[in-house]
Amino acid sequence: MKKSLSLLLLLVMLSAFDTHKELKWEAIGDSITYSNSHPEASQHRISIGYMDDVIKALPYIKYNNHGYPGWTAKSMAENMEKIGIEKAEIYSIFLGTNDWWVGLPIGTLSDYQDNTGNQTAYGCYRIIINKIRSLNPDAKIILMTPLQRTEYVDLNNPKVFIQGQNKAKEGVFLSQYADAIKTIAKAECFELADLYYKSGINLKNAVNFRRLRNPQTHEYKNYTYPHYIGIPYDPATDEYPYPVEAMNMTYDGLHPSDKGHAAIAKMLVKIMKRF
């Protein structure tokens, strides 16, 4: 009995000193990924991004930030040889929201399978993934669907306004880009962080409200979703519609707050802790 207890104690002590092998993570994305290392871009409305949240939970993972504001899958595909992507054990690809806004054709799975080039989202993902595989064919690849988004007004340039996903852009909905990314993940047996459908970030909680002038009284009023849709906003004369107290999962209708980044990280940690 004593021998068994001693052996058990020894195993517990050894496990306490057991350390996970360090893993390198190349995080590929747009402004949401970029913001992790650049809180000044949000006028410090955020303090931490999803990558830092992940490594707080999994400190043996070290990341490189390859996030570029405004980039689409096409932008990334065209620049994969120039941005210093390195060999790593983990790669994440978090794109799609800008593709929807600029109208990059989605294409079909055959564009991905046949490597048809950078004229469709499917084709662009093939170029990106080909580069990753050339660096490490055994790497873990995580595809991330775009976040749901409501009416966006740029905090640093309020003249920049983009409609929410409730309306189609050139006949296409943001959800269709999310579905394309899911299709690639399924075809390739990649890991999937399905942020669009499963992160808990949605049109109702993206922001608490938009502060706009009542069209009848011209007095400011806090409108919740969907009541603010269609109410005029003039950046030349009106206050920024998302004051700090309007922040919820995002701080501007699109870019995640600390709370939003934590929701993204939670999904990634669930995946990465298995590696």
UniProtKB/TrEMBL annotation:
An annotated Gene Ontology molecular function: phosphatidylcholine lysophospholipase activity
SUPFAM superfamilies: SGNH hydrolase
Keyword Hydrolase annotated: yes
UniProt keyword annotations, A-Z: Hydrolase, Signal
Residues covered by the SGNH hydrolase-type esterase domain: 27-263
Domain of life: Bacteria
Signal peptide: 1-18
Name of this protein: SGNH/GDSL hydrolase family protein
